[in-house]
Batch of 4 targets.
Target 1
Amino acid sequence: MQCPSSIGKKFRMISNKFREVADKNLQKYNLTAAQLEILIYLKSSEEEEIHQRQIETWFRLKNPTVTGLLNRLEEKEFIVRRMNPADRRYRVIELTDKGEQLLGEMWEEAKMAENRIFGSLSQEELDQLSGLLDRILISLSEESKEHTGGKLC
């Protein structure tokens, strides 16, 4: 059995490599991986109004970090922020047509990259890996609750 620190190190190395490869591939779109993740989140949440606080919670990021990401996405005209008429304390964040078009262009490229990354694994192995990662995330979430008095960060 491997020592736990070597497994943790592999997680960090994989995470860093994913981010590095993603950022390199996204340069031509003038995006970072973090910005793309927010665009994908907005696309997957089209049926509901999304506010900055939801993004902070979902990605477990602090307000200044999300503000910076949203500012850059707005400067690039991939999103708009508009006042919520029902509650003026919140601004609704939406994809623009330009943001929608960008995601459409990137879809095929993302599928090909995923095939390169996971192509050596069978569907059974992918399902098993996904299940194992889910279990680890649940364990980490439960540990986080214990250390934060029951609240997730």
Target 2
Amino acid sequence: MEQWESLAERVRTLLAGTDAREVSMFGSLAFMVDDRMHVAVRRDGDLLVHVAPARYDELLALPGARPAQMGAGRPMGPRWVEVDGGSVDDETSLATWLQVAREHDPAR
């Protein structure tokens, strides 16, 4: 199993019991909760997280976090943070980033 597949399986496990579905999007596997994209597992093994813009700078200071890019030189803006897959190698850190995405959900 490749690194991204392992990460996707871990996200599935942590989202069990929610209204989550998976969608292939932008070369990633996006996890939609209540029909809103919360996170995506990229084929390179990194995690893309939808965040509240007010927390963007704070979240970028966390280990492995960086501004998300859609491609070289194409920043996605303050609603998205990319997290190095190695920084979410335990369930606590992965669950923390999933919670960040869930807290940002404007429908909550």
Target 3
Amino acid sequence: MKIEHIAMYVDDLEAAKDFFVLYLGGQANSGYHNQTTDFRSYFVSFDGGARLELMNKPQLEDQPKLLNRTGYIHIAFSVGSKERVDELTRKLAADGFEVVSGPRTTGDGYYESCIVAIEGNQIEITV
């Protein structure tokens, strides 16, 4: 069994799509729009077959996303090397995204950094 995709509601669908394409190498489809409900979405595909569905619909309620809470907390992206983790973390910081940890080697052996991007959601960048 494998995870087929992960879905994420966002307020700014185009900005979210652009983030995952620009910084994380995703390939976005042409999008979907349900004229009746005004639901919109993109599927963004990544190397190895992982897919992220970015979605928007009218009247979403955006709750604060505390980093220390239960539930889904981050999406992790493997970029292939420590150097690439460092490089991407520097680029994201320079572009105004908050780095909340790292780059560092964690107690369980991961080399990673974590940033807050896309409407307060945490993204992990790892080898």
Target 4
Amino acid sequence: MFKGTPEIVAQRREEIVGACEQLYQTMSFRDITLKEIGNVTSFSRPTIYNYFHTKEEIFLALYEREYDRWNADLEEIRSSEQNYSVQQLADLIAKSLERRAQLLKLLSMNNYDMESNSREELLVSFKRAYGQSLHNFRMILEKHCSWLSDTDVQQIVYIFFPFMFGIYPYAEVTAKQKEAMAQAEVDYTYQSIYEITYNCLIRLLSSGASSESHR
């Protein structure tokens, strides 16, 4: 790790992660290299090794940042004193994930590679951000869905978070994929990230509801 001031280290790490994010808008995980990332930063590729040993570590930092951004939205929902209906709560959470398409993309495509090719201390830092999202989601359910039992809450958390891995591939479909589906005569209704998430949450949050007022 580069022995600079904490401010310089943070600034350069952020620039590297930002360069990776910029490339990820138009390039695949496979095609992005440390050389490509170095071409977008203000310093040379060898300097990157002072902060990250592999491109997977850079992506893991981007991944962590996406969880931090989602956590900010979840914490806002969690802190609200409004009495949300199932529909309102599902809408808020679905909108929060709609804004985090990049998080869902990383979840669905590159999770294993990033985690297996990163140093333990960076993986621990990432897991803290992930763990915070689990905590925030659970606290939202406990605060705003009083009709759910502890068992209901636990089951919803462990259904919804694995479910998130599949949202992006179902919502972000390429023209080539659509054409293949058409030629294969697959009867399929395309939905957005919001629609997929909202419909799932409506079903999950309605479980255990004790009256129509909760629905």
